[in-house]
Design a protein that fits this description.
Blueprint (H helix, E strand, L loop, with lengths): L6 E3 L3 H19 L11 H10 L8 E2 L2 E2 L2 E4 L15 E3 L8 E2 L3 E7 L4 E2 L3 E6 L5 E6 L8 H4 L5 E5 L2 E4 L5 E5 L5 E4 L19 H13 L3 H14 L3 H18 L2 H14 L4 H13 L3 H14 L4 H19 L4 H9 L16 E5 L5 E5 L8 E6 L2 E3 L6 E6 L4 E6 L3 H11 L4 H5 L24 H11 L1 E2 L32 E3 L7 E2 L5 E6 L2 E6 L10 E2 L8 H12 L6 H6 L4 H17 L6 H15 L12 H16 L3 H14 L3 E5 L3 E6 L5 H14 L5 H18 L5 H13 L1
Parallel strand pairs: 4-19, 5-7, 10-13, 23-26
Antiparallel strand pairs: 1-20, 2-3, 6-12, 7-9, 7-11, 8-9, 9-10, 11-14, 12-13, 15-16, 17-25, 18-22, 19-20, 21-22, 24-25, 27-28
Helix pairs in contact: 4-5, 4-6, 5-6, 6-7, 6-8, 7-8, 8-9, 9-10, 12-14, 17-18, 18-19, 19-20, 20-21, 21-22, 21-23
């Protein structure tokens, strides 16, 4: 799955001229590949240039508009997988332009504060006093650069990439954060000339330094001090105190796995430590390991029965366990939150994935399959976003390629950076994300002395995975805007020709396994940070779950163009096979039907309009070669509902009722209606907002006399509404005006 809307922009003459300049600069840089810079830039000039530079100088205006993220295309290159001690040390004077220095390592020290431009830009020096610019990419926007890169921070760059920046300044560029190590003052790798004279400090001293840093909000610095204290602490009580403090710092820093490890180490010293148990439970909750969290809280509340917060947390965990086991969610709470969704809102719900599993797909790569047979309207899974950028957290990114003279724009400017930042804190999460890349032969660099101790993270690969699998995540999109009484209740995101993208963009891991079909057997809905997926039809056991990546009602050529542009595939579903053979006569009929709709608009239909639409519906139906249960007739179904409206306008009730009965069958519904049994379905139809509208109106008409038939139409309307809207709590709000009168 991926975000629809990636596109290539046309260039204005002014932009094209700027591109030509960049193209010349890149060609000149390429000609200097393997050479050293002809002259050194004095450190004073480097510092002054960085101080004066703004984000506008790096190209963040384009065609008169400001974009949220912008960069020049760079050919992806793999990260370093070698331990720094196994690499050959070099200096700034050894660096060659446009070159990745494989087999080498460089030690640098910051001499300025980091500045957030298109990258985190810093002026650094080596042991010999030479200076250059360092550019670190993919640093999360919420990261405190002053804390990460304070003046005097020693940085190790494995296999450094030295190249010209977009401002024509030679710079060391870091794209993979695992290529970079930030050294503490006391680490053995710190060059001797930069080593701080060893001061006789006690574990108590380090504890105090850490506590001071925590009070100032410098969590990373606090972790450094606590770690130094742990290394020398001999007394068990001091070691326990330092572990507990570092555990808390990791919790604040959102390094939850390290928090759990520190808590476990503390529990080896004091098996019933209240602080260790409590902090471990907090971290396990954030890691979404609810069963283990519950066990930890049970031990905590048993030992400390007066801990009110732990008791409250245990009840919360029980709710999460119920959600992930049985799929029992407080949907009203979820809907209420989603309707007022905003950045930073915390969706405290578990994932429910019991009915599904992943395996190799016959369509493409891996897919999501059913563990058992499921019924239409049944919840397949409900998953929380790994990363979800909303409103101001999101944006449009531009990637400029001076060689091809193209500019690609796409939504979700910061989703990949959020994912990368989360991986920096919790690298163990890499394994699940890496599985989404079908051609992946991913080596984590563990177990081989030639490689790194920790997972090696390829930023380019992660960005590609996120680009292909991110979802437009408009919270609570409204499929039924015409039913709303006030504009404030409309839920559709505002888009324009100038900004056609969804304002939200997110990344969900398990739902990303779902492949595409224009005739989907499931539908997904975003409710805040939660993706809710229901079966659109009855699905047998071990059947692949398919969703539509775009609107299946869009013209065939438009859909195929979007698939090729955004995801690089061609759809061969039954609908596409049929529509690829549609002749001009069928297209002419559809065009005439649409012209009638546009001509009538919001006005009243006439007998002539109704009869003409009926005639055209009959002609159109004869062109369909597949049963509707295999290939739904979206266009026909929509216009049969309009036909019902036209007949109703002129008081032709029987004709209106007949047209309305035909609509569900166009969506593939197979059913029988009897007075005794009500409505008996063999197939409820392919879930769609227009199908819901048809069922609601059938319920309203038959509801005048009541009985099983009316109840049957009402129930199937709710079933399909749940699939389309992701919930059923707002059904009465949406259609109460239509069905309310006969219910009373």
């Amino acid at each position: 799955m991926g975000v629809a809307g990636d596109g290539v922009m046309d260039l204005s003459e002014e932009d094209a001229q700027a591109f030509r300049i960049q193209r010349i600069l890149q060609q000149q840089a390429k000609n200097l590949t393997g050479q050293k810079p002809r002259q050194k830039i004095p450190r004073s000039e480097l510092i002054k240039a960085l101080e004066d530079r703004t984000i506008l100088d790096e190209g963040c205006t384009f065609s008169g508009a400001k974009y949220d993220s912008i960069d020049f295309y760079i050919e992806p290159y793999p990260p370093s997988c070698t331990r720094p001690e196994l690499l050959t040390k070099i200096y700034i004077d050894d660096l060659k332009l446009e070159t990745i220095h494989r087999g080498n390592v460089i030690f640098l020290r910051t001499i300025t504060e980091a500045k957030r431009l298109t990258s985190a830009s810093i002026i650094v020096e080596d042991e010999r006093g030479d200076a250059t610019q360092l550019q670190v990419y993919h640093i999360g926007r919420n990261i405190d650069l002053k804390e990460m890169f304070p003046k005097g921070q020693v940085i190790v760059i494995k296999e450094p990439f030295f190249k010209f920046s977009s401002t024509a300044m030679p710079s060391i560029r870091v794209d993979h954060f695992t290529d970079m190590l930030l050294l503490d003052d006391d680490e053995v790798m710190v060059p001797e000339s930069w080593a701080i004279e060893e001061i006789d400090r006690s574990a108590e001293d380090y504890k105090g330094f850490g506590n001071d840093a925590m009070r100032m909000g410098k969590t990373r610095e606090a972790i450094k001090w606590y770690t130094a204290g742990i290394k020398i602490a001999e007394a068990s009580d001091m070691r326990l105190a330092l572990l507990l403090n570092r555990c808390l710092a990791h919790l604040y820093y959102e390094s939850y796995q390290l928090c759990v490890e520190d808590a476990d180490a503390a529990l080896l010293i004091s098996p019933n430590s209240e602080k260790a148990l409590f902090r471990k439970a907090k971290a396990l909750y954030e890691l979404r390991r609810f069963a283990k969290c519950g066990n930890t809280l049970k031990q905590l509340t048993k030992t400390y029965p007066s801990n009110a917060e732990a008791i409250k947390d245990l009840e919360r965990v029980r709710q999460r366990v119920s959600e992930e086991t049985f799929g029992q969610f407080d949907s009203k709470k979820l809907v209420k939150m989603a309707r007022s969704d905003k950045p930073g809102m915390e969706y405290d719900f578990a994932d429910y994935t019991a009915p599904v599993y992943t395996k190799t797909s016959d369509i493409n790569g891996n897919g999501l399959f059913t563990k058992r047979a499921v019924k239409a309207g049944e919840l397949l899974c409900c998953c929380k976003a790994f990363a979800n950028c909303k409103g101001k957290e999101n944006g449009i990114s531009l990637t400029m390629d001076p060689v091809s003279m193209t500019v690609s724009q796409a939504p979700g400017a910061f989703v990949a950076d959020v994912v990368l930042e989360k991986l920096r804190r919790e690298p163990f999460l890499l394994a699940e994300i890496a599985k989404l890349y079908n051609d992946l032969e991913y080596k984590q660099g563990v177990g081989n002395p030639e490689q790194s101790d920790t997972p090696v993270i390829d930023s380019f690969l992660i960005k590609q995975i996120v680009r292909l699998n991110a979802f437009s995540s408009s919270s609570y999109y409204d499929e039924f805007p015409e039913m709303r009484s006030t504009p404030t209740s409309f839920r559709n995101p505002s888009k324009s020709k100038e900004n056609p993208f969804d304002p939200n963009c997110g990344f969900w891991i398990l739902p990303s396994y779902m492949n595409h079909s224009c005739v989907p057997n499931a539908r997904r809905v975003i409710l805040g940070d939660m993706m809710v997926i229901h079966a659109a039809v009855d699905i047998p056991k071990d059947t692949e779950i398919l969703i539509s990546y775009t609107d299946s009602k869009q013209p065939y050529q438009d859909r195929q163009g979007m698939f090729e542009l955004s995801w690089g595939f061609t759809c061969h579903c039954q609908q596409c096979k049929f529509e690829s053979t549609v002749n001009k006569s069928m297209e002419d009929i559809m065009f005439e039907m649409q012209s009638i709709v546009l001509e009538v608009g919001y006005g009243m239909g006439t007998v002539q309009v109704a009869e003409k639409m009926m005639e055209l519906c009959g002609k159109l139906e004869r062109f369909y070669t597949h049963p509707a249960v295999q290939v739904p007739r979206w266009f026909l179904g929509e216009h049969l509902i309009r036909l019902y409206g036209y007949y109703s306008d002129v008081g032709m009730a029987q004709e209106a009722f007949t047209a309305l009965h035909m609509a569900p069958r166009a969506f593939g519904a197979i059913y029988d209606v009897t007075e005794n049994d009500g409505v008996v379905f063999w197939h409820k139809g392919w879930a769609d907002a227009d199908l819901v509208r048809a069922y609601v109106r059938l319920a309203a008409i038959t509801g005048v006399v009541g009985g099983r038939v009316a109840d049957g139409w009402l129930q199937v309307a709710k079933d399909m509404y749940r699939v389309v809207a992701g919930e059923v709590d707002t059904f009465e709000e949406t259609f109460g005006g239509v069905i309310g009168s006969w219910k009373e």
